Amino acid sequence: MNDEGDHLTVETAREMDATDPLSDLRDRFYVPDGEVYMDGNSLGPFSVDAEAALEHVVDEWRELAIHGWTDADPDWFSYGERLGGRLAPMVGAEADEVVVANSTTVNIHTLVGTFYDPDRGEKIVVDSLDFPTDHYAIRAQLRQFGRDPDDALRVVESRDGRTIETEDVLAAIDEDVAMVFLPSVLYRSGQLLDVETITEAAHDAGALAGFDLAHSVGVVPHDLSSVGVDFAVWCHYKYLNAGPGAIAGLYVNERHFGVEPALAGWWGNDKATQFDMAMTYDPAHSAGAFQIGTIPILAAAPLDGTLDIVEDAGGVAALREKSLALTDYLIALVDDRLPECTVGTPRDAASRGGHVAVEHPAAYRISLALKERGVVVDFRPPNVVRIAPAPAYTGFEDVYRAVEHLREILDGEEYEQFDRQSGGVT
Ligand SMILES: *Cc1c(COP(=O)(O)O)cnc(C)c1O
């Protein structure tokens, strides 16, 4: 250990846990016994809060049946709008600019389909490191407009296979661009993009700016309204711990209220006239217009519980502060203890989301060896072990332990016992 590594002991990890103002939140989570859970950027764990909220709607369903739409507390009819209002401060939006609805991929379909206007320009700017479903949906929407996606998609390439340079995004934005649609945080390297600069550049070119916040919502604060982002989507089963397949979220800036959604449905109708059952759609004058069908209450209720945890933490800013301390500590440990690995995540806090990409040629097999030791991480091709010390339930000693396990796995070449073949969900 070198001098700089003197603070990287288990004792200092325990001291940081002892002074962590958020350490009590962990007791509200069902982190599987004996596991160091570092995969909350893929699926957050269950919590007593999510469980209570879910049991509450199950009880109401049993007791109220259809009366639950109006008589449940809170009522089911406006559940999506109400949850949107609770989420709004977490993304820096007005209450009526946010709603929970559909899945992330469906929300990309409806929002890109709504806001793509070939008269503004033909191109949609994306990047080469995007989460694939985003491209699948955008390409499908371009085909709906009779465009060849290979022509209309302008893909900003990565220079290093890990990150996207802001200047390369700006260089891709010109008068041929209708829309920029990018992630806030890249799912593999964890780079946090400069949402504000990109939005301004898009607007300067007469284009719209949309973002996929799946890897930042709940762990990185956003200022969507004041930055003027046009629209955004995200899921709630990652850092917001609302459960597998939980209802997703979306934001639409109020200047776009009243537009006709690409995927219209009765649940997006103005609530005052929804049950008039008119044959023509009358969009809600809010982000609520982008709901499609009946809200899946059982897939929305856990979020109502887990938002309590964020509020009790003091909001996303407090979670972000701890998250940065955890990832700083993780990066320092990797540098000090794991010289055979490379940190693929930007070191600058302003360019980093909530997880760290640890690169090694045997990453796939290392991720399996870690899992066998109870350290739950995931692998992303070609060479990344993603380690997500989610701030609501992860402590500094957990990070220390995860790196210790990794050190032992490398020392014993334990990963050699595993098949090189990759497949299935990791
Ligand atoms: C997790 C994730 C998704 C998931 O989309 P679903 O429709 O919920 O399956 C989409 N985009 C990004 C960037 C993600 O990280």
TrEMBL record:
InterPro entries, A to Z: Kynureninase, PyrdxlP-dep_Trfase, PyrdxlP-dep_Trfase_major, PyrdxlP-dep_Trfase_small
EC number: 3.7.1.3
GO-annotated cellular components: cytoplasm
Catalyzed reactions per annotation: 3-hydroxy-L-kynurenine + H2O = 3-hydroxyanthranilate + L-alanine + H(+); L-kynurenine + H2O = anthranilate + L-alanine + H(+)
EC category: hydrolase
Cofactors named for this entry: pyridoxal 5'-phosphate
Pathway involvement of the protein, from the record: Cofactor biosynthesis; NAD(+) biosynthesis; quinolinate from L-kynurenine: step 2/3; Amino-acid degradation; L-kynurenine degradation; L-alanine and anthranilate from L-kynurenine: step 1/1
Biological processes per GO annotation: anthranilate metabolic process; L-kynurenine catabolic process; L-tryptophan catabolic process to kynurenine; NAD+ biosynthetic process
GO molecular function: kynureninase activity; pyridoxal phosphate binding
Keywords, alphabetical: Hydrolase, Pyridine nucleotide biosynthesis, Pyridoxal phosphate
Sequence similarity: Belongs to the kynureninase family.
Known function: Catalyzes the cleavage of L-kynurenine (L-Kyn) and L-3-hydroxykynurenine (L-3OHKyn) into anthranilic acid (AA) and 3-hydroxyanthranilic acid (3-OHAA), respectively.
Subunit structure: Homodimer.
PANTHER family registered for this protein in UniProt: KYNURENINASE (PTHR14084)
Protein name: Kynureninase
Source organism per UniProt: Haloferax marinum
Organism phylogeny: Archaea, Methanobacteriati, Methanobacteriota, Stenosarchaea group, Halobacteria
